[in-house]
Amino acid sequence: MRVFAAILLAGAALATLPLLGLPLFYESFLYLVFHWIILATSWNILSGYSGYFSFGHGAFFGAGMYTTATLASRFDVPFLWTLPAAALVAMLLGAGLGAVVFRAKQVRGELFALVTLAVTFVVGTIVLNTPIDGGPGVYLSGVPVPKIGPSAASSFYLMGLAAAVATIAIAWAIHRSRLGTGLFAIHDDEDVAEVLGVPTFGCKMAAFAVSCALAGLAGGIHALFVSYVTAGETFSITVPLTVVLMSVLGGTRHWAGPAVGATIITALLYAFTAGNHAVAGKAVFGAVLIAVILFMPGGVLGTLRARRPRKGALRAPSVLPAGGDASNEAEEVAVPSAATKSPAVARTKVILAAAGLSRSFSGVRALDCVDIEVREGEILGLLGPNGSGKSTFINLVSGHYKPDAGALQFEGRDLARLPAHRIARAGVARTYQIPRPFAHLTVLDNVALTAMFGGAALPRKEAVAEARRWLDFTGLADKADALPDDLNLHQRKFLELARALAARPRLLLLDEVLSGLTPGEINGAISLIRRIRDGGATIVFVEHVMRAVMALTDRIVVLDHGVVIAEGDASAVMQQSAVVTAFLGKAHA
Amino acid sequence: MGLPSATLLAQSVLSGVFIGALYGLLGLGLSLSWGLLRQINLAHFALAFLGAYLCYQLAGAGVDPLLTLLIIVPAFFALGVALQWLFARFDISAFNSLLVTFGLTVIIEAAIQSIWTADFRRLESVYGNAKFKLGVLYIPVPELLTLLLALALSLAIWAALRFTDLGRAMRAAAEDGPIAAAFGVNQPALALLLSGVCAALAGVAGVCIALSYTLAPAQIYAWIGVVFAAVMMGGLGRALGPIVAGIVIGVSEAITMAVTAPSWAPLVSFSLLIVVLLARPGKVQ
Amino acid sequence: MMNAIRRIATGTLALVGLSLLAAGTSWSAPSGTPIRIGSTLALTGPLASTALVHQIVGQIYVEQVNKKDGLLGRPVEWIVKDDQSKPDLARTLYEQIITVDKVDLLMGPYATGAILSAMGVAQRYNKILIHHTFGIPSLAKYDAQFPTWSLGPDPATTFPNTLFDAVAALPKPPKTIAIVTSKFPSVHFMSLGAREVAKKRGLQEVIFLEWDFGNREFGPIAGRVKDAKPDLVWVGAIGLEGNQLLDAMKKIDYAPPLHFHMYPAPGPMVVAPEAKNALAATIFEEHPPFTNNPGAAEFVKLFNERATKAGLPYTGVETQAAASYSAWQVLDAAVTATKSLDDKVLADWLRKNRVDTIQGKLRFDGPSNYGDDLMRLKQVQNGRWVTVWPKSVAAPGATLMTN
Questions:
Q1: Which ipTM score applies to this complex?
Q2: For chain C, which domains are there?
Q3: pLDDT of C297-342, one tens digit each?
Q4: d(Cα A204, Cα B99) in Å, to the nearest integer?
Q5: How far is B135 from chain A (nearest CA, A)?
Q6: What is the CATH number of the domain that holds B257?
Q7: Is residue B173 scored above 90 in pLDDT?
Q8: Reduced DSSP (H G I as helix, E B as strand, rest coil) percent helix, strand, coil of chain B, to 5
Q9: C183 contacts in A (CB within 8 Å)?
Q10: A318 touches A175 (CB < 8 A)
Q11: What is the pTM of this model?
Q12: Per the omega criterion (within 30 degrees of 0), is the bond before A317 cis?
């Protein structure tokens, strides 16, 4: 909140500038700085945070520009009233595009950049060839500049300032919100984010809509500033390229990065406008850009931040309360271990039911008509040789893949029809066999993310407290502010576990959490898992470590080639000849 | 407005193929460095124009424009190697490479402007007016040269990446650097080589531009949009991608221009591109 | 004390004597604080190729005027900034020129978009704006702006008439016309005007095509024009577009019988073999009778020298340089006649008077302060541009040729 107050205060202080009686040029120049701040910061809300690099910012900026130009010059709408319309049109354009593009899984990375670039050209062509423009451009000479400040320049200055302050405040608010965390998770691993409960489509849509609306607003103001709008100048590669450069220069992972980059680049462009060495100035401009990014590879803000001692509160996007209350609550969770197995499970209700579940991958049947039931409160071991379909089962239940056929019911809900994040929200959490942490989020934020988006659905502040509790539980408390890359395999496995637990799942899917651990570590993990079950979770446990299977499971299901070949008490099942053949046959092959 | 004649259509398709080939040639080096080196090399366009101006200059001194390749290709190869050395030295990430190469672009543009002025330069050569007739179709020689060069280079690089140990090592290094390194792939050396090749390709594209186009420093930016589109559509790091995508864009625009209002052409080609991307699940990459 | 006073007195006397001496040897050297004239030009970016011409012209004028007795006896200083071909930057730089540099007078920037931006600023500060390259007269709504590119208030009607008059005087006047145009604002409205005029005059339009400015693909357009078999092709092109279309026509062995290009880049078109007999609009060419105008011959000579020295491939004076020089002449004339730097006084004088420039007499009393349409028709003949219409300004012996 202090940051928010600081943004507003800075804005208010700057708003007094027109009273100082400086030459009006400074206001005009600062307007241009604000203009680029709005464009770069708004671009960053989707593209910097979530990694969906858009090359289409020119289209949204242009949509706003033409909306204002058309309304103000043809329909005599007062200029200020055209601005919400400009934002709205740009937002609708973005939302329409997002609704199509974000559904297509293949349109990620540079393909998203390509689609948005193509949209810029398409929109530009439409504007140029329809009465919106038609070719001659739109001239706004008759449109009065609203008298906000003492002069036209100061009016633009104040409008630009207000919009820039609003944009930065929004960028900051999103950065620290659930939405921001979701976007950063999408940036690192979208599939995992979705499975852990982040409504990726919704997050992207929300960010895109906000981003486009702000670009449209900037366009609307700019239409009157330049007062002559042409399609050629508007729908070019210049706007997207410039905002990308500004954001990268300032640092895309920081809410203020694009604003810093925009200020630097605009000021630099200005520094070299003297007519007698314009060309040399251009070269110097290029050289300065190179020098800055060579020596500040994380962007200006990114690099400055990295130089300071790493503290949780400083790492994106966590804003932490003092962590005093975390430890005593942790005791509640860490219930002393009760009986090793719960004899009563046979009578409890079925929490997860798979019937006729099938899934193929390019013709190979990974699961073939599988029926599995999981009862509330039990630990079900899922066994089988490599490639037998265990992980596929986990992937289907968690929504990572959709089944080709069969029913999958979780507490009466049809999982096959739910998007993955709704499954997570319903109370299913999972770990990945090969840990897939979000590489750019701290360990703490990795865990807090599921507390926010998983079954618990906590507000951010409580989620962070919850995350600390589970880090304590898994022994990672002192690594809270580290990045996942700094962890060893054992710690990364436990991070997976903490991440799943923070969701407070009703059904926990553990995919080979023990593989790769030393016998000592396995012992620790076994007691950990017991404690988890005693906390009330139902567990599906995929494992090769037989000692753990025997010690932990109430019941096991054995898969081979995608088919259930045995089911029942662990020791009994392991005697069956089919099971032995499946394992040994595989082992000898 | 009646239907266009078959000759007009055929000639238009041909002209679309020619310009598409130039998109592809310009995109080839860009795609390779983007896909295999993880560098978004904006300076590729500036290098191409630098090559074009050098070709113009040398041709003005009496050298046959095609023979200028003998000077431009090695010189640009060295330039590319130097550039990669800089990138490796500072360990520049993909998006930072965008910024660094933009800075380079601006510097090269300024250099071009101070040497050759901002005014238009046009290479007049024996190839300029050369053309021949194939049935009812006219084949202009400079464009044909561009097409042949683009095809030959794309195919050669495709084959090299696919069938030679060096190429396989390059692709492996791009897919997983540490593992490739563990198998003894000398990644830094490969990157130097590849970057040199990419810059040399920019030089070749530059010569082709000089053969067919009038030069001005700001033209550097005129090609970015469409070539980026071709590169991304063709798939990063794929040698045949840019030329195929470039020709698809070029031909679709040319046909649009032949049958309807030419100013609608970008709408058709780019809508087509969007539809293709959305309709082909995970396939374009 | 007395000594000191005496010393100062002798010193002053000596100084006065020296300055009198100096005045005697070059009695017209300007003195006093310089008159500062501010403008921007697109010295970098896509418009730089032409802006360079305006920079050279401005430098020539300033040197010329300072070599004489300056303006009102004061030297002239020209402050020029680079607007990087961006209209929004031009606007802000004009504000800087007015409010920070506090110049005495303004000069227009290069090209329509930037001039519109500058015009808005000039209007807010009540400065007069004399400009040289504004293409759409109807957009010039400020009463103290003065165009020296003499298009007349309605060039989209008047100029096509000039062209069609010229071709109608041919032994075999064209009956059909193809109109192809870029959607670049300042040429597009001219092309639409040409359509209207052609229709009124009974020229049959066989094809009308528009392309997006920045188009690279001219093959299909060339093919369609060829198939339409027009007697006259109106090419609404700016910069290199005309060359690109001609190049595409050449590739399919087509040379239109008559072809007019709106605003071609003069250099590339005059050297291209396929541009033989290309027609274009002009207000000034390097031949009589234009060069008979006062000051014209000297300017042409100076410009040729400077352009060569600056390494420009095309060093001739034509519309751009002439309009630019006229702008300086108009500013000079107004200041000299009124002995004032007051914008209001200057504007009043300009609205009431005609000014001699190298392109002829300009007046500013029509709609949007435009006067006569002085656009003539020129043609590429034997590797140079010659004016061919109207006959009164045609180059000696030159007549309109057809392919």
A1: 0.90
A2: 35-150+289-372 (3.40.50.2300), 155-282+377-393 (3.40.50.2300)
A3: 999 999 999 999 998 888 999 999 999 999 999 999 999 999 999 9
A4: 25
A5: 36
A6: 1.10.3470
A7: no
A8: 75, 5, 20
A9: 128-129, 135, 231-232
A10: no
A11: 0.90
A12: yes
